[in-house]
Amino acid sequence: MAIKHFLQFNDLARDDIEYIFQRAAWIKKQFKSYQQYWPLSDRTLVMIFEKASTRTRLSFEAGMQQLGGSAIYLNTRDSQLGRGEPVEDAAQVISRMSDIVMIRTFEQSIIERFAANSRVPVINGLTNEYHPCQILADIFTFIEHRGSIQGKTVAWIGDSNNVCNTWLQAAEVLDFNVHVSTPPEYEVEPERANLYGTDHFEEFADPMQAAKGADLVTTDVWTSMGFEAENEERRKDFADWQVDADMMRVAGENALFMHCLPAHRGEEVAADVIDGKHSVVWDEAENRLHVQKALMEYLLLGKV
Ligand code: CP
Ligand code: NVA
Question: What domains sit in the chain, N to C, each tagged with a CATH number?
Answer without folding.
Answer: 9-131+287-301 (3.40.50.1370), 134-284 (3.40.50.1370)
